[in-house]
Design brief:
By secondary structure, this protein is of the alpha/beta class. Helix content is 31%, strand content 18%. Helix 1 runs parallel beside helix 2, helix 3 packs parallel to helix 5 and helix 7 packs across helix 8.
Length: 384
């Protein structure tokens, strides 16, 4: 890679050209060279070729590096993008530092055939208990994309805070977003900021799946609007870490008007097909009411043209085949959901909850799901 290297995109696809253009800009940033984009392949070029007839699986790519060229072939723009992430992983580490050396470098000659084993490769970020700024979330998205993850599950509400602006219910953020765990200052995203995050993720082939946790984990919502609770009493914001003590009021029809408004606004801001409705640890909601909640929320989500995702407990209700259950603790719930024809997302807490302590000597983290090292998570095989 030197100041004579060019970049080529053999495709008329606009998304492919966007991938190539952004990779060229990154190369210019780290090397200091002016990288020309040429219409045809030549020696000393990085050649991107998009061809649906190549037989390369969707999101996959074929990468060949030799003395003359770097050649990438894919059947989708996502495949081209993931090839660029592999090229990043192959160049010297110092080129990803804040102050790259801005000089020539060489990739080793190789050939790679790569494609994902799983269509859904997600990670959750809990911005409700601990708020993260727009720039911090973007950095998280960058990491996901670098490791070829393609879903950001954004946990936007919990007992400790409500993090997304709702035009019809402004106190959710005006009051409900003020704090976070430990009592420190919270925050929220305007709808414009959320749309910015969604687009930023989409540019990196990451799908944003927003979660509003219902009917439990709703203390911040009830503190903002006491009428959402059955007793209607005023509540202070909660900054602890206990779970299972809050629940919206099933007996009030106004509760479902609230849910419909929230789903309306969130669906309008979310181009992807999924909305996550939580559904976990609703320990203070009677089972019959919980089933009624999930049944009606599923209908509300479907009526907005979206597919409902919920934590595994939603399997206690009657699910339709468009809904998705996210397994985290109880295998029976996952089996019950699958028996109803629902898809399953695997998120076993004992294996891939990265906020668990590594071992008994770890100063930070939790241990309710056991100790979880990075190696343990890395070696997890979902097929088993």
């Amino acid at each position: 890679m030197n100041n004579q290297t060019t970049i080529v995109c053999v495709s008329e696809d606009s998304a492919a050209h966007q991938v190539v253009s952004r990779f060229g800009q990154l190369l210019e940033k780290i090397t200091g060279f002016s990288i020309a984009q040429q219409p045809e392949a030549a020696d000393n070029a990085i050649v991107f070729s998009l061809d649906a007839k190549t037989g390369v699986p969707d999101e996959g790519y074929h990468l060949v590096i030799n003395e003359q060229q770097v050649k990438i072939t894919a059947s989708s723009a996502a495949g081209l993008y993931y090839a660029t992430q592999t090229l990043r992983q192959l160049w010297p580490e110092e080129f990803d530092s804040e102050n790259p050396p801005r000089q020539n470098f060489r990739w080793q000659a190789l050939e790679i055939h790569d494609a994902p084993r799983y269509r859904w490769r997600g990670a959750m970020l809990d911005v409700a208990r601990h708020f993260f700024t727009i720039d911090e979330v973007k950095r998280y998205i960058d990491y996901l994309a670098f490791y070829k993850m393609n879903v950001l599950h954004l946990h936007l509400s919990d007992d400790q805070g409500w993090r997304i602006e709702m035009k019809k219910w402004p106190r959710l953020t005006a009051f409900g977003a003020q704090q976070e765990v430990g009592g420190t200052t919270g925050g929220f995203y305007t709808q414009e900021q959320y749309l910015e995050l969604v687009q930023y993720a989409a540019d990196r082939f990451v799908l944003v799946v927003p979660e509003i946790d219902l009917p439990g984990h709703t203390h911040a919502a009830m503190a903002s609007y006491p009428e959402l609770s059955c007793d209607g009493r005023s509540r202070k914001l909660y900054t602890g870490i206990d779970v299972g003590f809050s629940s919206l009021c099933y007996q009030k029809e106004s509760t479902f008007a609230f849910i419909a408004d929230v789903v309306d606004e969130l669906a309008a801001m979310t181009p992807g097909p999924f909305l996550h409705i939580g559904g976990d640890e609703a320990l203070s909601t009677p089972r019959e009411e919980y089933v009624g909640f999930i049944t009606r929320i599923q209908q509300i989500v479907r009526a907005r043209g979206k597919r409902m995702i919920g934590w595994e407990e939603i399997a206690q209700a009657r699910l339709d085949s468009t809904s998705v259950a996210q397994y985290w603790s109880n295998p029976q719930h996952a089996k019950d959901a699958a028996a109803q024809g629902a898809k399953i997302i695997l998120s076993p807490a004992s294996l891939i909850y990265l906020d668990m302590k590594y071992d008994s000597t770890s100063a930070y983290g939790l241990n309710w799901a056991g100790f979880t090292s990075v190696e343990k998570s890395y070696r997890w095989e979902p097929d088993t």
